[in-house]
Design brief:
With 286 residues, the chain is mainly alpha-helical. It is built from 13 helices and no strands. It is globular and about 50 Å long.
């Protein structure tokens, strides 16, 4: 229902590009969830509800909307509606567990922006796509509920932080300014891909006011996780012996406090998506 009527009006090349973007989003989500070990997060060692695959048509519909629209306000209303449909699909697939609300928001904006940039022949460089996504995020979604009552929203209000919406409206600074630089620096010094992605995650955790952590453990837990992540990076990252020990200590803190940096995980997925876009553009595959 989400994509059918809109998709029928598109040309085959546009459909193909939008489907390819949705596959890249799905791969970024799968890369995030299978990354192991992640402190306090679902990975290959643990069990948890996962809804990435059911969301691929949602991201394809958002990409399709972005590729066809030059009216940013109308586009914002459209992707807001698609996102709410996507949340309903997620909750149905997980039995009511919120696994990807933040990812639908962040990656939905980014895939829409990437499709819009591609249709205009504009750059798919990370900062360009993030800026376009930020411009959409700053527009008002008139059909969105004033209050949702979800934990992230309550944490934003209680602790006076911006949360996922603030990251998007500020052009995803922790994706382009922390996650991607850490990912690229780690690769450049010879770390394997798993380690590079872990270091990118840690760079985000060390700076993000993660509402998932705040809602469960408060400011004390957040500061402990931020300090622990910074410590891993300070001793050389997850590939070093000292970094490995610091990562284990960080995981112990997350488990002891019962917190999970889910907001950072969503931004890691966004980091991996923009990295794939950049790599595709560099090889002429955008």
């Amino acid at each position: 229902m989400i994509a059918t009527t809109t998709m029928m009006r598109t040309t085959v090349p546009v459909r193909q590009r939008c489907a390819a973007l949705a596959r890249q989003v799905l791969q970024a989500l799968l890369d995030e969830v299978t990354l192991t070990p992640k402190p306090g997060l679902v990975d290959l060692r643990s069990r948890g509800a996962h809804s990435a695959c059911v969301l691929q048509p949602v991201f394809a519909a958002m990409a399709d909307a972005g590729a066809q629209s030059d009216d940013d306000d109308g586009l914002r209303q459209r992707i807001g509606a698609i996102g709410r449909d996507g949340e309903a699909l997620m909750l149905a697939a997980t039995g009511g567990v919120n696994t990807h609300r933040g990812a639908i928001w962040a990656l939905g904006l980014l895939v829409t922006a990437a499709a819009q940039q591609g249709a205009r022949g504009a750059s798919l460089a990370p900062k360009s796509v993030a800026a376009r996504a930020g411009a959409l995020a700053r527009l008002h979604d008139r059909s969105a509920p004033g209050e949702t009552g979800n934990k992230g929203e309550l944490a934003c209000r209680q602790y006076r932080v911006e949360g996922a919406r603030g990251q998007a409206r500020a052009d995803f600074p922790l994706v382009t300014g922390a996650g991607l630089p850490a990912l690229h620096a780690s690769r450049a010094r010879g770390d394997n891909e798993t380690t590079a992605r872990l270091n990118a995650l840690l760079a985000i955790v060390s700076q993000l006011d993660d509402t998932c952590v705040l809602s469960r453990g408060g400011e004390t837990a957040l500061l402990a996780l931020q300090a622990g992540a910074a410590r891993v990076l300070a001793v050389g990252g997850a590939a070093t012996a000292a970094g490995s020990q610091a990562l284990l200590a960080l995981e112990a803190v997350a488990l002891a406090r019962g917190v999970s940096p889910g907001g950072a995980a969503d931004l890691l997925a966004a980091t991996l998506f923009l990295d794939r876009l950049q790599e595709g553009e560099a090889h002429g595959n955008a």
